[in-house]
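User: structure tokens for this one?
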Amino acid sequence: MEKSVMVVGLDDSEHSYYGLEWTLEHFFSKSPENSPFKLVIVHAKPSATSAVGLAGPGAADVLPYVEIDLKKIAARVLEKAKETCTAKSVNDVTLEVVEGDARNVLCEAVEKHHASVLVVGSHGYGAIKRAVLGSVSDYCAHHAHCTVMIVKKPKIKH
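Assistant:
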């Protein structure tokens, strides 16, 4: 039987890693080879220009350094994703880094892999920050052509 594809969007945030761990725990951990899903993990790497968000004299000098940093982050995200999967004995996993805005990258990954589920972590931003940034999960929930699961990290009760 052809497995459905589950795409997990991953960035270098605690919420994002939690989303991956939660997904592995609930969909892959009992017997990974019997999971109905094939796992594809996608990291959207911002372009250096969008990360710096500035133009004009001086920007060009900074970009190569920013690019090196973004590549390091991308490598770290994939490394951590691989370790997390291996720890749960999930070995059949595809890891991708795609340059661009996470919103578009994740929706395009859904199309490309014909995914039936997209998983994103919730960043738990406040309303103001979310209004300014426009949340990736909100965007994907409206635009991805598949079921979108937003994994929220439980608030710790004090």
